[in-house]
Write a structure and sequence with these properties.
Layout: H1 7-15, E1 24-25, E2 43-48, E3 55-61, E4 65-73, E5 84-89, E6 95-99, E7 108-112, E8 118-126, E9 133-143, E10 165-169, E11 175-182, E12 186-194, E13 204-209, E14 215-219, E15 228-233, E16 238-246, E17 253-263, E18 277-278, E19 284-289, E20 296-302, E21 307-314, E22 323-328, E23 334-338, E24 347-352, E25 357-365, E26 372-380, E27 392-393, E28 398-404, E29 411-417, E30 422-429, E31 439-444, E32 450-454, E33 463-468, E34 473-481, E35 488-496, E36 507-508, E37 516-520, E38 527-533, E39 538-545, E40 554-559, E41 565-569, E42 578-583, E43 588-596, E44 603-611, E45 628-635, E46 642-648, E47 654-660, E48 669-676, H2 687-690, E49 694-700, E50 709-713, E51 719-727, E52 733-741
Parallel strand pairs: 1-2, 18-20, 27-29, 36-38
Antiparallel strand pairs: 2-9, 3-8, 4-7, 4-9, 5-6, 5-8, 10-17, 11-16, 12-15, 12-17, 13-14, 13-16, 19-26, 20-25, 21-24, 21-26, 22-23, 22-25, 28-35, 29-34, 30-33, 30-35, 31-32, 31-34, 37-44, 38-43, 39-42, 39-44, 40-41, 40-43, 45-52, 46-51, 47-50, 47-52, 48-49, 48-51
Organism: Candidatus Viadribacter manganicus
Protein name: Peptidase C-terminal archaeal/bacterial domain-containing protein
Keywords: Signal
Amino acid sequence: MRGKLWFGVAAAALMAFGMAPGASAQTADQPGDATTTATLTGNADGEVSPAGDTDWYRLQVETGRRYNIALAGIPNDAGEALDPMLAVYDEQGNQLAFNDDANGSLNSALRFAPQSSGVVFVEARAFSSEATGAYRLGVSSEEVPPDDAGGDTSTRARAAAGRATNGTIEYEGDTDWYRFAARTGNRYQITLDGAPGEGGLGDPLLRVLDRDGNELAASDDSDGSLNSALEFIATSNGDVFIEARGYGDAYTGRYVLNITPERLPRDNIGNTTSTGGRIAAGRTIEGSLDFPTDSDWYRIRLTEGESYRFTLDASGENPIGDPLIRLRDSRGEELAVDDDGGDGLNSYLEFTAPTTGNYYIETSSFTGDATGTYTLAARAGDVPADANTDASLSPDGDYREGILAPAGDRDWYRLQLVEGQGVRISMQATGTPDSISDPLLVLYGADGAELARDDDGGDGLNAWLEFQAPAAGAYYVEARGFTDDATGRYAINVIGGEVGNTYDTAEALMPNGDPRTSFIGSAGDVDWFAIELIEGRPYRFNLDGLEDGALADPMLALYDSTGTQVAVDDDGGRGLNSYLSFASPTGGTYFAAVSSFDGQSTGRYSLRAVDTDVPGHAYTDEYLDAADDSRASSIEIPGDLDVFRVTLEAGVTYQIDVSGNGANPLADPFVAVIQEGAGMEEASADAALVRDGGRRVASDDDSGDGLDARLRFRPEVAGDYLIQVSGLSNTTGGYEVKIARR
């Protein structure tokens, strides 16, 4: 519950739209999808039950009418009421309108003007997936007032530069669209002001959109007032649309729209394939972005199979703030792009030419509207794979993106360190379609001897290592793939210093991720790691010394967000290693502190945290064998969800039982079956499961012995399903889930 609502407030939410408190009662629970047969024609009473329930109602709508819909919680005997949420969907499940809190209360209300006639679906649900309670849903409609300008790209209203356009927002939610013929080479100053005197639009909102309705520019408040103003530069000749409306669709009134054109400064480098700009490998060029939206294109000839490196740096007396570099083919199609792959916000791009021919390097700003000077450089050849490399990393903090190509390529970066200086280096996939799948980091000394390496010490398959220089000099970071034939884009990140020695500088530790490997480099050193824990969920922490200079006697302590120690272990693991188990009473951020037992020893270690609970989401790693399998677990906290993945055959009947188990059995088990990829069922008890696609296809509460759950299910479609176990009425305790073919 988010609070208490008295019936007077609940009724007021309905009365605000002209709906009387009286309503027809619903005798059965409504489905939470488009299969519902419940129809909304006026007011209706319903109930969200069990927790996570959603009710859908069919509503017949017509264009030219505006529908006022309100949803209010009805207080129970204790005076507490549901905090409802209201949404409207089309027949394909696309959300058309939504509201949570309205009219200064926790109740929901919205106005909806359909773009086409037909059936829509009104959804009633609770703000909290754990809440239940009665509600009242109501709808009324009225004709939409006549409009002086269309509200989409079909509008016939036009605006012209140099001439004021007067209009009116006739009703809340009204939008006026004006066609405007924009031309390249011009800068347009566009303002939208509330008309002077009574009846002026209180808070104008101004937007510019293209022919597909995509936003090109927008403004709400400007120059210390509620009026709107923006600057727009067209990238091509043709019509755009200028939209006038009230902020939040909550204002009406008269407005004045003005468009003032001015010529842009002449650009010395074009931004098309006809540009006169030229650059060759081995050359450096200084240039400038002369006006907002300016970009400079330089033609360059590349040779098939050859690798090239391009840098775009802010430079000069008026440097561009955040450069952006793109590489385009002979037709101007984008092949590669980089924002911050160079030093700081500068750009760095590696590219291997697939064919011999002309290419184009585009220089621009990240925001697209910045001006300033820059330096563009083109180099032939890949990053060298030996100590002769010209690529370097700063030990104080750096970020680089690169490409391993062809197969088996390795890139070396020089890292200059002083004696005792520590660095943390990570290498990760960039997340782009051409990114490397499994990075590997190797660190070499000045003599080429390997000093450290890591494969999966970061998140997933990414690499992470920490190093402290035994002597001053040059060191070399090698970026490569785990396999000899690996290729792809990667990113290297350098953080200066050792793992943080206070919780303010702690490294992230992921539950169920790969172990973090590091070292205690000096007497009294403590390494801190931050980890997010879930309330009531049990976790295991293992701290082990690693071979080749292992930390002989590791010690592990766990602290909460206030810095209070909540757990500590010295030799709970194998030998002198540390192990502890911990269940957070509150959830949130905790800190694991690694040190040596005597405070004097040094050495390498590995730290790992494991979430031992059954996951409550669609990415669960808990599997059941559909033929005949069972699993015992527990619901530790109210609202906890356990999820098991199972593969089912079409047309086969399966029986699923969930029963209380153990010394503290789950009092009222509930089971649901989710079909993955079968559509969206937003905002239910399954919300964490189905946000990436899924639909509840079966569920049961009390069909087993007593309050135990039992259901028989015959899937129509073969594939992966998710079995969700929870406790109704916020019950907790042990349970056993069984599945068998029947």
